[in-house]
Amino acid sequence: MEKVLHPAYSRGTANYGWLNANYSFSFANFFDPNKLQFGLLRVLNDDYVKSGMGFGTHPHENMEIISIPLSGEIRHKDSMDHTEVITAGEVQVMSAGTGVEHSEFNTSQEELNMLQIWIFPEKNGLEPRYDQKDFSELLKTGELINIVSPKSDQSENSLYINQQAYMHLGDFQAGRKIDYNLKNENNGVYVFLIEGEVDVSDTKLKKRDAVGIWNSSSITLDFKNPSRVLLIEVPMN
To answer: Which residue numbers delimit the Quercetin 2,3-dioxygenase C-terminal cupin domain (predicted)?
Structure first.
């Protein structure tokens, strides 16, 4: 088992007034040669957006983009003729493929906090697509919920992306202990603790800390406090 620890304080930060951003990997004006990506996971941004503000229309291509609002709501509009609102408890996926333009704005009265994740696709030049799903009821079960899967291995409840990657989200009480078995021996898993405190295979994480683990078939999560955790399993090359 190999590990890389990314404490919350080591993330890049940027405050634009309307946006307070935290970058787990090199992004925008933040560059760290040791934090270019984790396997095929390229971006994990923890953004706080003021009410009425947001990202104007901008392009993407050849990237699988996953957005997870933690509080507030996002109004999404894109060049595929989608105009949607995504709220806390929902997850959005957008395969940029050959190219798509979109905008994202906080249309709620409260500050928006969302995670934005970018994963390199299995193949470039795919047709762009959009989807979203409400996981709020499943997240009440206290189990690890599969929110994103590869198209070739899509679970009953998950959204799919064009990569052999899996994402799980879960809320757990103190004292809960679970094992996570990786789907592929060539994958690694990036554990991002949204809230709480957890030991991940003997590595202690607190709020917004993360650890990347590879060369292991499974990990153990031992929750010390009520916690919300995001697991991103991706190919390492």
So the answer is: 147-234
- The DSSP secondary structure of 209-227, one letter per residue, reads -EEEEES-SEEEEEESSSE
Q: What are φ and ψ of residue 126, in 5° steps?
A: -80, 160
What is the number of domains present in the chain? 1
pTM of the model: 0.96
Distance CA 91, CA 169 (A): 10
Domain boundaries, position 84: 2-235
Q: Write out pLDDT tens, residues 185-199.
A: 899 999 999 999 999
- Give the distance, in angstroms, between the CA of residue 196 and the centroid of all CA atoms in the same chain: 17
Per-residue pLDDT tens for 50-65? 999 989 999 999 999 9
